[in-house]
Amino acid sequence: MLQRTDERWMLLLRHRCVVRASPHFLWVVVITAAVSLGGGTEGIVLAQASSAPATPGNPADCTVSPRSPEDLAALLTAPPGLIRSGMDGTQVATPTLPEGGSPADAATVDLVTATAREGVACLNAGDFSRLFSLYSDQYLLAVWGGVDGPDLSDDAIAARIQALSSPVPQPKDEQLVLIAVEDVRILPDGHVLATVINNRGGSRTNFVKVGDRYLIDWAYALPNEGTPVPS
Prior knowledge:
With 231 residues, this protein is an alpha+beta fold. Helices cover 31% and strands 17% of the residues. The chain has helices at residues 4-13, 15-18, 69-76, 82-87, 106-125, 128-131, 137-144, 154-164, and strands spanning 55-56, 102-103, 177-186, 192-198, 201-210, 213-221. Strands 1, 2, 3, 4, 5 and 6 form a six-stranded antiparallel β-sheet that branches. Strand 5 and strand 6 form a beta hairpin. Helix 1 (4-13) packs parallel to helix 8 and helix 3 (69-76) packs across helix 8. The radius of gyration is 17 Å and the shape is globular.
């Protein structure tokens, strides 16, 4: 049976509890986040967008290989990231929103859309060990590092790893729907910037290519202009 601290940590992993603490927990969900990421949307010119329709994130589509127990242990014992620092009331410097770039080709749009779609599926599946595989190493550590605080015992680390590796699907009426991936641009450094929108909000998301796929490398809050509605 989970101890009380484990129960609280499991609640922290549920998106309806964390989304108001940081837009990074759900990189595609921004609901008046308490953590300001800086940057803005001024000067963004619409470029190529995905033609994919609004898509409920099917938990069965979360098929990326999960993070290893060693990766998760390193994450739990890492220096405090953005979420932990926010919980502790500590200010953390964050990147500013990149500008410029050129419209992405259709193949690149398809690849970043695939990552966004699978990310929504993993969130709906409540499968965090797989969701974290869609984050770059630097993004994962910068945001989630040391989220449960310092000086964890070996037993506590093992319990957290078990929790992260034990999917708890979201109720169907709370699941996310991917609405659009648009304004996809290739930046001078090779990263790809895109606006990712779902039924609870959106973010300007920075993707980096690792191997044959794009991973989420940072997220920037968009102004809250109401809840998007799937068409």
